[in-house]
Amino acid sequence: MVQEYLDPNGNSTSVWVSNAYTSIDDAVREPNDPGTATSIYANKSDDSEEQTYTMSNTVETYGAVTQIVIWVNGMIVAGTPEITCRISVGGSWETAQNMGLTTSQAWHSYTFNGSWSAANVDALLVSFITPNMPGSLDLVTIYCAYADISGTAPGAGTNMKINIADTWKAVDNIKINIADSWKAVSSVKQNIGDVWKTVF
């Protein structure tokens, strides 16, 4: 499995009363405490508003990204505003889900499952959506947010490695030149005891 974390790196929208991405890009990971020095928040003026952020790009190499977990540290300060979260991967929006914030500051998460390319995840958008906020004291605050993404390694299951400088490196793609044309090798076998065994 390949895994990494992506942090907010820009505002795609700026609609909540307090919305700067720099207030939640602390790079603090659950279960650590991000503190309360900076935050974004929505109040009675933010009825049904969708606050959206761009995220940092992937640095790992994937066969496919199969899971995106959105982590939020926050709380309902007053009233009962239940915020939801949705993500856009490669321009396609997933269904919004309740983040389950309570009146105590804590970490909450929701897991989105699928099969996406790293290029699509590099265009990841994360949105937090307020409900109708009729109460004069309704207030919800987020102190930190990030995406925990994981997936398969490229060429997973080839079981072939090459030693470079005393370090074994996985061989994900092998090609052979036939008549001045490079052809992908999808299977390699070795003869052991007059029986052909699949290497990968």
Short characterization:
The protein has 200 residues and is mostly beta strands. 2% of the residues lie in helices and 49% in strands. The protein contains one helix and 17 strands.
Describe the structure.
The structure is a single chain. The chain is an all-beta fold. The longest helix has 4 residues, at 118-121. It is built from one helix and 17 strands. It folds into two domains: 2-152, Sandwich (Jelly Rolls), CATH 2.60.120.260; 161-198, no CATH class. 26% of the residues are buried. The strands form five sheets. Strands 2, 4, 6, 7, 8 and 10 form a six-stranded antiparallel β-sheet that branches. Strands 1, 3, 5, 9 and 11 form a five-stranded antiparallel β-sheet that branches. The model has no long low-confidence stretch (mean pLDDT 88). Strand 12 (161-164) and strand 13 form a beta hairpin.
